[in-house]
């Protein structure tokens, strides 16, 4: 029996919002598996530190800044990625904005900010990236969704709506570009401890308490998504496309 090929050697990956959290864990895993990675984040200092760490460890990485609510970011980061590494094969749409507020009092400007960052930017990034993937006759798009895209949310209705739309975008991309050697999939994290969710998990005790409500008995951490992302981007996962895979410890199995 031959082991499946999980390497992504000679591939170039662009990851948004990857200076920390799930995006960073995926960037580190892809770099360890052979890809050159571009770490984009609004916090350029954080992205630069992480890119330097990957380079020091023998990988290849560069950092790019930019605000994900500025739609010109899509064209800029794709162009800079190609300039740095000569191509673009993997796009991980990780960056996202969320706000908890009463639905009837949800500010319109916040709705617009989430729609811009969570839906419009990933869509434009795909438009910019796909021609480079077509030229290479190989591409991988990984969108980071959420269990809220499936179940909805009492306190973050707009955010849940955007994640549901991202799942639908994933299916459309998969159907339209499969013949070009491009796959598109969505990873849907459940309850994860990240910097963005620090208010939900102010302590390890709080994380442990919430973990008791998860079938596997704990909440998730960024590394829990990294292995799946490598699978979806490698030869081992080349027959998987158009899927949303929930990494949630079994929450959606109920």
Structure description:
This protein is of the alpha/beta class. Helix content is 44%, strand content 14%. It is built from eight helices and seven strands, in the order E-H-E-H-E-H-E-H-E-H-H-E-H-H-E. It has a seven-stranded parallel beta sheet, with helices on both faces. It is globular. The mean pLDDT is 94.
Kindly summarize this structure in a few lines:
The protein is 44% helix and 14% strand. It has helices at residues 21-32, 44-56, 73-85, 108-136, 148-151, 157-177, 204-211, 223-233, and strands at residues 12-15, 36-40, 60-64, 90-93, 139-144, 182-189, 244-247.
Summarize the SSE layout with pairings.
Blueprint: E1 12-15, H1 21-32, E2 36-40, H2 44-56, E3 60-64, H3 73-85, E4 90-93, H4 108-136, E5 139-144, H5 148-151, H6 157-177, E6 182-189, H7 204-211, H8 223-233, E7 244-247
Parallel strand pairs: 1-2, 1-4, 2-3, 4-5, 5-6, 6-7
- Tell me the number of helical segments per DSSP (H or I, 4 or more residues long): 8
Shape: globular
Give the ordered list of helices and strands. EHEHEHEHEHHEHHE
How much helix is in the residues? 40-55%
**Assembly type:** single chain
How far apart are the termini?
35 Å
Q: Which strand order does the major sheet show?
A: 3-2-1-4-5-6-7
The biggest beta sheet is recorded as:
7 strands, parallel
Mean pLDDT: 94
> Mind telling me the C-alpha Rg?
17 Å
What fraction strand? 5-15%
Question: Which regions have little confidence, pLDDT < 50, spanning 5+ residues?
Answer: none
Number of strands: 7
Which structural class do the helices and strands define? alpha/beta
